Amino acid sequence: MQVNTRAVLERCIENGIQAGLRRAYKHTNTPTQETITDCIDRYIWLELDDYFLFPETPIPNTEPLVSNGG
Fold first, then answer.
1. 17 in a structural domain
2. Per-residue pLDDT tens digits for 37-68
3. C-alpha gyration radius of the chain
4. What is this structure's pTM?
5. Looking at the domain assignment, is residue 24 inside a domain?
6. What is the dihedral of CA 19, 22, 27, 32, to 10 degrees?
7. 68, 61 in Cβ contact below 8 A?
8. Range of the domain at 24
9. Residue 48 backbone dihedrals phi, psi, to 5 degrees
């Protein structure tokens, strides 16, 4: 079995946009563009977090690129 990643991402993004818009208009009929954008962004990430695991902090590559020969 293989996951259709594009379909899952599409669903997460669509649901996030819809939920973000509802949230932006929850307490006002005239939210600012910044509020709308922030709410949509937040809700898209909430949807993605339901289906994907993201590392909390990326682990930097500490390996040297070139050996010093010794």
1. yes
2. 999 999 999 999 999 888 776 666 666 555 55
3. 19
4. 0.74
5. yes
6. 90
7. no
8. 5-51
9. -60, -40
Answer yes or no: is 11 within a domain.
yes
CB atoms within 10 A of CB 28: 9
The two tokens of residue 22 are 């509802």
pLDDT tens-digit profile of 8-19? 999 999 999 999
Inter-residue contact 20 to 43 (CB < 8 Å): yes
CB 8, CB 40: distance < 8 Å: no
Give the count of domains, the chain: 1
Gap between the Cα atoms of 8 and 53, Å rounded: 13
Cβ-based neighbours of 35, under 8 Å, separated by 6 or more: 24
Asked whether residue 65 is assigned to any structural domain, the reply reads no
- Cα 35 from Cα 63, distance rounded (Å): 42
Cα gap 23→42, rounded to integer Å: 10
